[in-house]
Amino acid sequence: MNKLIFWLGLFLIIFFSCEKENIDTEIDITLNDWKVIKIKKQGELSYLNAAESYIFEFINDTTFTFNLDVNSCGGQYKIISKGSIELGDTYCTEICCDSDFAEDLRQLIPQMTRYYEKGNELIFKGQGEIILGKF
Asked: Which whole number is the average pLDDT over 58-67?
């Protein structure tokens, strides 16, 4: 009986001590410019931090732009429903060489299918993850 009470008490302590994430799927992503903080490729355990300043701008309800190390890029997007997004393939100038991180970022974008705001971060998830902060 004492073991049952112990395990029940432990369960209740753990359950009620966990703070739920405060996420918002009703965010208007066009109200801010967003700076890439970090990315995580599918199958990777750790994030890669952005060493440069990569800025996203969602211009209207269909178009976004972003910069890489050297090149400027853009694409089309569509909000499917609250928290669900379709980011199309990107197009970029071809001035010179971008870093491996920038190329990974560019390849991740069309793989994102969900988004939400958590604090000052805009988080995209899908086959990987892109975390942006308000700029």
From this structure: 94
What is this structure's pTM?
0.81
Q: Write the pLDDT tens digit of every residue in 80-120.
A: 999 999 999 999 999 889 999 999 999 999 999 999 999 99
The class (CATH top level) of 24-134 is mainly beta
Contact indicator for 124, 115 with CB cutoff of 8 Å: yes
DSSP 8-state assignment for residue 19 = P
Both structure tokens of 119? 């604090």
Q: Phi and psi dihedrals of 33, rounded to 5?
A: -90, 155
Question: Residue 102 corresponds to which tokens in the numbers above?
Answer: 């920038």
| Residues whose CB is less than 8 angstroms from the CB of residue 8 and which lie 6 or more positions away in sequence, other chains included | none
Q: What residues contact 114, with CB distance under 8 A and at least 6 apart?
A: 83, 84, 85, 124, 125, 126
Q: How many CB atoms lie within 10 A of CB 121?
A: 15
88-122-69 Cα angle (round to 5): 65
The domains of the chain are located at 24-134
Q: Return all residues near 104 (Cβ < 8 A) that are at least 6 apart.
A: 39, 41, 48
